[in-house]
Request: fold
Amino acid sequence: MEDSTLKQKLLARARRRSSPRAAEATGGERPAPSTGNPAGDYRTWTDFTAHPGYQHLALMRQGASRLGLTDPFFKVHEGTAGATSTLEGQTFINFASYNYLGYSGDPRVNQAARDAVERYGTSVSASRAVSGERPIHQALEQALADVYGAEDAVAFVSGHATNVSTLGYLLGPRDLVLHDEYIHNSSLVGTQLSGAKRMPFKHNDPQSLEALLARHRHRFERVLVIIEGLYSMDGDAPDLARFASLKKHHEAWLMVDEAHALGVLGERGRGLYEHCGTAPDDVDIWMGTLSKTLAGCGGYIAGSRPLVEMLRYFAPGFLYSVGMPAQVAAPALKALELMRAEPERVARLHAISGYFLAQAQKRGLDTGYSIGAAVVPVIVGNSPQATRLCQALFDQGINVQPIVYPAVPENSARLRFFLSCDHTQEQIDRTLDILQQQLDDANTPR
Ligand code: PMP
Reply:
């Protein structure tokens, strides 16, 4: 057989194997192992270009090039990314970075990193359990625990790995995870790793959760409900009191991923519980990241001492991974101290986010469920349109990321605006004027 024909056949077979229906059958996860290859031809399985992931990428690129769109991903920022950022040698108004309180690039935070490097070097050179422990880790964890009035906290080197490792370790096949349908990928991957049964409930809908609990609680041992403090695609927040009361009634655990809520929600930026006026110990597992407000990289779990001790000794992504470098821990701790001392930054973030939301709505833009707290989407209806608008704004000195399928359903593709306390009203007016003009032009029949 001619080589290119053979290749096409192999690709078609690989595509059939990874069809959406196959993915559906496995709950959106990887297809079941195949039954082998009696014909003895394994080229499909050794050629990376036949991998469904590569096929998906190739299709995306073909589609974009047919529509004359440039790739909106992997843009290079040449300095600190805050309310403005330098790309291609030019200063942009920037809405694509979650530097919510402006602490990444703050001279005091930078100095904390420099001091830490001077004292500890650039690596702790071992897992924390076996000689990687430094005083700065303990100081950071104590400060994180204090945010929630929790007994203890543990910091991992990655936010994503925090969820994967914690869920993968805590739960097993006799357990059930009930999660908001918009929950972050890291919680899905962690649940998958654990072998627990997984069921989504409708976004921010306690009634939908209640129906699942009533129907399934009794069939499982541990049941964990996972929600987020502030949803990063939609900029909305759950009603914590209602979720907490359900988990109590049905004797389950409640976990809140505060990645985007810390520093953003509540008057002092303490997150969802402050925003909702509830007690922090209504939540069993507080999870958060150091990569947003805390100007670093990594994640944490805060909660009871037994929970945290278990994770410190046994969570694979902690135990079998190097300790957080001091020059990451120290600036995160500094940012946390500054956040406590400077509630005016949180107030500025609230004011400017509220301004963005109000001005966008005044112009008739679709901001979905956003409550106007640091994350505001403008929903534009399809992925090519979102990518086109991103390009048009970029051409006028504004950097914002399109969020396209499959990250969100195709008909709710959007531009997602991250606000920082350093944005100004003028920057927002200019951005929204240009966006509205672009949308009007796109909707004008030619
Ligand atoms: N949880 C949520 C809700 C997130 O948005 C993210 C990613 N930004 C993570 C966890 C993972 O965090 P990190 O990027 O710090 O690894």
Residues 343-362 form the longest helix (20 residues). The radius of gyration is 23 Å. The CA atoms of residues 107 and 209 lie 45 Å apart. The first strand starts at residue 84 and ends at 87.
